[in-house]
Amino acid sequence: MSPDLALRAACASPDGLPANRRLHQRYPIDLDLRYKLIHGRQVLNGGVGKTHDISTKGVFFSADQALPSGLDVELSMDWPLRLGGLCHLQVKIAGKVLRSGERGTAVQIRHYEFRTRGIGPISAEKAHAIA
């Protein structure tokens, strides 16, 4: 049995139907984001939104407008955790708009990377712990 079939069988409900058809678990997360719609090398439009959930292969978010399906998109958001507890991180995502409607926009992730954004203020307790 292939690993894919084994995973689906393990996730099936007692009546034999899949409990969840998704292969990649989605994690609910509420982050502000910025997006750029891209055609070729040209930025067509940009705006802001807020994430609903994220997985290793996709992002679902609300945007300030409906986004056209099929276009490339770049997303950027400040990550809630700091590198080493000190350095702010930003995640940059390159993907494709799969669908967009009243409930939100689904983007397939093609590539992502974390970038550092500098060290934030350090509390007295943290400064003492580092020293």
Structure in words:
With 131 residues, this protein is mainly beta. The protein has one domain: Thrombin, subunit H (Beta Barrel), CATH 2.40.10. 11% of the residues lie in helices and 53% in strands. It has a six-stranded antiparallel β-barrel. Strand 6 and strand 7 form a beta hairpin. It starts with a helix and ends with a helix.
Summary, kept brief:
This protein is mostly beta strands. The chain has a single domain, classed as Thrombin, subunit H. The longest helix has 8 residues.
State the main characteristics:
single chain, 131 residues, mainly beta, Thrombin, subunit H, six-stranded antiparallel barrel, 7 strands, 53% strand, disordered N terminus, disordered C terminus
List the helices and strands and how they pair.
Blueprint: H1 3-10, E1 27-28, E2 32-39, E3 42-54, E4 58-63, E5 72-83, E6 87-100, E7 105-119, H2 124-130
Antiparallel strand pairs: 1-3, 2-3, 2-5, 3-4, 4-7, 5-6, 6-7
Question: Strand-and-helix sequence, N→C?
Answer: HEEEEEEEH
How helix-rich are the residues, as a percent range? 10-25%
The coarse overall form would be globular
- β-strand amount: over 45%
Please summarize the sheet with the most strands. 6 strands, antiparallel, barrel
User: How are the strands of the largest sheet arranged?
Assistant: 2-3-4-7-6-5
Kindly state the mean pLDDT as a whole number? Answer: 82
At the first level of CATH, the class is Mainly Beta
Indicate the low-confidence ranges by residue numbers: 1-19, 127-131
Q: How many strand segments?
A: 7
Radius of gyration: 19 Å
Query: What is CATH's topology name?
Result: Thrombin, subunit H
- What is the count of structural domains? 1
Helix/strand-derived category reads mainly beta
